[in-house]
Write a structure and sequence with these properties.
single chain, alpha+beta, two-stranded antiparallel ribbon
């Protein structure tokens, strides 16, 4: 069996890091090292099986070329491997999903059974293996010894050499093609040269030394990280639209005399009604009508749709807070159809609104329903927009 250079990477893991991982997962250091070795073998084999897909290989090379050389050392030193939410683990898992697709779950279960670890620990070791291979390939791409043409052959040789450490039971199963894209940095490595034969052994020894040196430097130069306050953004409140599509603004608070606080559209009818009631200079008259702007009825019917309840609840709350206020509820239609039928429909709709308010404990003697049919249009009945404006329910304050 030929020698695998990628397999040597697991031996470069710092002893202290391996001990920490083993303690966290409640197992031996030997189990962790064997698990990482099997994970590396699985990733290399998976990449090799996909090596005929040029688009896939191109994405892998881009991802590898942007993977920091010290990514593994940094993750091991800051405990990322034992933190399921770390970007190191989530990024590794995303990479593995790209390589193995739907087989990742089966691979994780196989590694779990082989090592005796829980699936969460096996998943972490697979992510470590994936990131280790990416870091390795990144170094190869950046220094020019691997390119798109030589990578398939390199992976095939490494995969053959790693068969003994591949998780048992999966090495003969082909990996189905997946359309999942690799999340890569758009910067593509340039000036990649052909593989230099005979230079792999000195290179791998140098890589191992560099990894160990990088880990030592990282640990010795670590500075306390200042805890920054999380940046909070204020969500933009959604705009409220009327039943005819008009912009009513965002929700604002309206305090009532009985300590009730309403959340109403800033340009909605509730605010207009409140302003009239609270203004001592404005007295009830026969012309100051206020149009409901969020009531909807079934077509040709007096049945209120459920979304109308919010505005009716607001009007009921206002009437409870101002018990001296009396209202006339007027119903109107456009000029389509029979005038007599329009009168009836407008009356039925006004009655329906009054009935709803009475069910909300507003005294019947404070409310009057009146149907006006197609009289008193506020829009042009020759247009669809105008007719929509004419089909309305309005309020008239008759006492306050």
């Amino acid at each position: 069996m030929q020698k695998s250079y990628v397999a040597s990477l697991s031996a470069a893991l710092p002893t202290s890091a391996v001990q920490s991982i083993a303690n966290h997962f409640g197992t031996s250091e030997r189990t962790i090292l064997d698990g990482v070795q099997s994970s590396i073998a699985a990733v290399v084999s998976g990449l090799s099986q996909r090596s005929s897909d040029r688009g896939f290989l191109s994405q892998i090379m881009q991802l590898a070329s942007t993977t920091p050389e010290n990514a593994v050392a940094s993750a091991l030193s800051n405990g990322s491997l034992t933190n399921p939410a770390s970007t190191f683990l989530t990024g590794g898992t995303q990479f593995l999903s790209t390589v193995f697709g739907g087989r990742l779950g089966a691979l994780t279960e196989t590694l779990s059974k082989q090592t005796g670890l829980r699936t969460t620990a096996a998943s972490a070791l697979l992510a470590l293996g994936g990131q280790t291979v990416l870091s390795f390939l990144g170094c190869k791409v950046r220094e020019g010894s691997v390119n798109a043409g030589s990578l398939p052959g390199f992976l095939a040789k490494e995969s053959d050499a790693l068969q003994e450490t591949f998780p048992t039971g999966l090495h003969k199963q082909p990996i189905p093609v997946t359309t999942h894209k690799v999340d890569v940095n758009p910067v593509i490595a340039q000036s990649v040269q052909r593989e230099r034969r005979g230079s792999i052994l000195p290179w791998i020894l140098g890589l191992l030394f560099a990894l160990l040196l990088g880990f030592w430097w990282y640990r010795s130069h670590q500075q306390p990280v200042a805890v920054s306050q999380p940046v909070t953004t204020t969500p933009v409140p959604p705009a409220i639209t009327s039943s005819t599509g008009a912009d009513l603004g965002t929700l604002v608070d309206a305090a009532l005399p009985d300590s009730t606080t309403l959340h109403i559209p800033e340009r909605g009818v509730e605010g207009k009604l409140l302003a009239f009631i609270k203004d001592p200079t404005r007295t009830p008259d026969k012309t100051s009508w206020f149009d409901f702007d969020r009531l909807l009825f079934d077509t040709g019917s007096a049945t209120l749709q459920p979304q109308s309840a919010e505005q009716l609840n607001n009007i009921a709350a206002i009437l409870k807070a101002y018990p001296a206020v009396h209202l006339t509820i007027g119903g109107y239609t456009d000029n389509t159809g029979n005038a007599a039928q329009n009168i009836k429909l407008s009356q039925d709709r006004a009655d329906s609104v009054v009935n709803q308010l009475e069910q909300m404990n507003i005294a019947p003697d404070r409310l009057v329903a009146k149907g006006y049919g197609e009289d008193h249009p506020v829009g042009d009945n020759a247009t669809a927009e105008g007719r929509a404006l004419n089909r309305r329910i309005s309020m008239l304050v008759t006492a306050k």
